[in-house]
Amino acid sequence: MTPATSQPVGEPGGTPVAAAVRVRALDVTLDGTHVLRGVDLAAAKGEWVNIIGPNGAGKTTLLRALLGLVAFHGEITIDGLSDRRRSARARKVAYVPQTPVIPPGMLVADYVLLGRTPHRGVFAAETVHDRSIVAEILARLDLGGFGERTVQSLSGGERQRAVMARALAQQADVLLLDEPTTALDLGHQQDVLELIDALRRERGLTVIATLHDLTLAARYGDRIAILARGRVAETGPPAEVLTVQSISEHFGASVRIVDDPEGPVIVPTTAASAQNGDQP
Amino acid sequence: MGRGADLSDPQPAATLRASGLRPGPLAAGLAAVVVAVTAGLTIGPVDIAAHRVALELLDGLPGVTVDSGLSDAHSAIVEQIRLPRVILGLLVGATLSVSGAAYQGAFRNPLADPYLLGIAAGAGLGATIAITSNLGDGAGMLDPVPLAAFAGALVSVTVSYAAGHLGGRSVASLILAGIAVASFLTACQTYVLQANSDAFRQIFAWILGRIATSGWSEPALMLPYFAVTAAVVLRYRRALDVLAVGDEEAAALGLDPRRVRMIVVLAASLGAAAAVSVSGLIGFVGIIVPHAVRLAFGASNRAVLPLSILFGGAFMVLADLAARTALAPAELPIGVVTAFLGAPFFVLVLRTSRREIW
User: Which domain holds residue B248?
Assistant: First the structure.
């Protein structure tokens, strides 16, 4: 069996689809700490993979390695390309960081136009083509009237959409999101995840996201990978991976899992209820 | 997705404007330069009519002969005294302003100025050593004081940069290294000064700065440094806008943040070192001019950098005019004037602008 087909991705039981992202034997050491150890991960074109795991498991480092922001051993192939040059990578992978830097005084239009940098280089002016792409994305993300406002003046939810717009302006096939819902209330969390889902269907994006909320991770996305202590501990469809046992083992959390037609709901249990034998 | 997002209808692009150098602000900057240069050439102990100055300048162009109606003495005042001084003011002001704007962008810090990496302290030490050791009294390019100041400034930037990168990769470590180097060099300068207290007055005068010329040698010395600094920094104006989202995100957009920062900072430092060596430590310009430009015209480096050149040059010429006329025939140190005029003006701009710039 060749390595290329040893890890079928995509619909379970279906024909293996060409992987948009393939990570093999990824090792990352930061300041003497072995953060990632032999990570293998693949995402098919158009697939949404959520990476979950306890704090310090290496989720953000994995995303940073995919972006080429940290030195690594192993192999990362994106769209068949293992080019480590930054601009080549930035045309393939777009990134929505957990806490984006809000540049002082920058207008939303300029901010989103930054996403065109990998395509035209840093010394050239933006073209009409660049501006029409950005205008289309701003309209799609309901930011049409915001171009002349500063990013600073936006609300939390609007800022998140502005950051997403910049990532979409990169026209990369792979979208990496680091905790895209962390700073948002429930309604805005839902809006962002629905938006990601709609965009990946419209544009055939491959999505890799880290999420803390396990129920949301189960509801949105096709597959879950649990990252623990720098390794991929489990990977598969949410209902298979999110079990009371696996959550207890990797998160040290005591939970109950309620089956729901749209996917498992993870409910934390209190110490008192555990003593009363209140678990189903 | 690239295919899906391509628009057959480019209509919305017409409504989307990117920040950049727009005609209005550019015209305002050029007008400021024209006003400042006119004032600098016409006002002084002898007032000379603007139209005669214009004719005199025209006459100076190769192949043009017009009669300005100025006497030989007045024509010499314009061509040999005021014009070189105005040109030097333009070059020094433009260089310090664009260097300050570049530092603020590269370090993403509103308090950054061209002296952040110890240029002032290094130049001060170099000048102090040259003055106290009586290294001869050559003029112009052979004057040891500016040469020593220039060398001191370049050494301090180089040491700060090397030390900052040894300490880590962050911008903060570079700034901290600059502070450490500046403190060390200032201590050295104070020591040299204490040991040579007879040179106090001369050194103090150098530190407060001046736009003084002896003919064309100072402007000629300054011009190439201004040209290199302005050319490099302006070429990187878009890169500095990308850098505004921080190193991590800039790298994810395909930029090499450390490389961009190094090139921009070194180019800005070169110009600032040259400016300091010909006119001493003129403070404040590298901070207030770029911020005033941001408050008036927006924060994009594509506009801030070129406009800082124009407004910085104009500001310095006007400050120098005030320095030489306020207590004529005595001259005020220009560093005093830039702060005395600049600070209230800046507070005014700060109060009246509604822009968020930082």
Answer: 81-352
**8 A C-beta contact, residue A76 and residue A53:** no
CB contact under 8 A, B254 and A134: no
With an 8 Å Cβ cutoff, are B16 and A150 in contact? Answer: no
pLDDT tens-digit readout, B161-195: 888 877 566 788 888 899 999 999 999 999 998 88
pLDDT in tens, B114-162: 888 889 899 999 989 988 887 655 554 567 888 898 999 999 999 998 8
Q: How far apart are CA B33 and CA B93, in angstroms?
A: 11
Residue of chain A nearest B110, judged by CA positions: A104
B217, part of any domain: yes
Find chain A residues with C-beta within 8 A of B249's C-beta: 95, 97, 100-101
The answer to whether B10 faces chain A, any CB pair under 8 Å, is yes
Cβ-Cβ contacts under 8 Å, A117 against chain B: 242, 253-255
Q: Are residues A209 and A81 in the same domain?
A: yes
User: Which residue type, as a one-letter code, is found at position B237?
Assistant: R
Of B10, B19, B236, the CB nearest to A128: B10
Could you give the CA distance from residue B182 to residue B121 in angstroms, rounded to a whole number? Answer: 5
* ipTM of the complex in this document: 0.88
Count CB neighbours of B26 within 10 A: 15
What CATH number is given to the structural domain containing B219? 1.10.3470.10
Which amino acid is present at B102?
A
Amino acid at position A238, single letter: P
> What pLDDT, on a 0 to 100 scale, did the predictor assign at position A15?
42
| pLDDT tens column, B84-111 | 999 999 999 999 999 999 999 999 988 8
Nearest-CA distance from A122 to chain B in Å?
A: 6
Q: How far is B117 from chain A (nearest CA, A)?
A: 23
Residue A12 has pLDDT above 50, yes or no: no
